[in-house]
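User: Hey, quick favor. My workstation is busy. Could you predict this chain's structure for me?
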Amino acid sequence: MKTAFHIAGVLLASLCFLSSAMAHIAISYPPSQGGPWSKNPVKEVHAWIGYKGKKFPCGGYKMGPVTDFKAGDIVKVRFWNHQVGEEDKFPRRGGLSQSRHGGGACEFSLSYNKGKTWKVIGQYTKTCPDIYYEWPVQIPRNVPSCSDPDKCLFAMSWVSYATNQFYHHCSNVRIKGKSNGKLPLLDMTIVDVKQLGQKMNVHALGDKKRGKSSGPNAREKRQNTNGFYAYGGGAGKKGINLGLIYG
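Assistant: No problem, here it is.
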């Protein structure tokens, strides 16, 4: 059963989006497809899958800027909305509005086949996302190389606390990996995507804050940067409890 806060949050979130193009969150690092830094900017890049026909995966956007990584790199993910302005400036200036919908569960994943399959390399719960923090995840040390940036994708996915919406934003990347390397075993969690016939009316436990959170959980931050999600690591096929609530 949804709490009164959750129901009110859904209504408030919907009204905020209709009245402002500044609502919701996308990723600015690695620079994502459809952002103002790309050759094909999309005003609603920060909206959820299904909004105005936005498709999974990645919103159906065209290829964006390409970022190079190597196995073992720590990716300091940054979030963005239209209030941020210059996306390269960090820390963010104070007083920014962000519709983070009470936080929720974020996953960071890699695809080597243009989004047909996804393997998780990081997970944060409750306080994610937040534009005021960096959210580090590691490119596993034992991943294979992926040289075609049209097929090689880094993605952030988010299930929020106060809305039954699934966000999925992608960045084109190249990865210099290991010969005979292997991708992690953990599959990306997908919910609230009618297009795929996924379970609907799903939200996640959050911190219930509208504004700035307390940032990444220290334990999760260690797991996301020390090989826990690599092939052979502790995450295996299960990962951590994302705190998803169904129905």
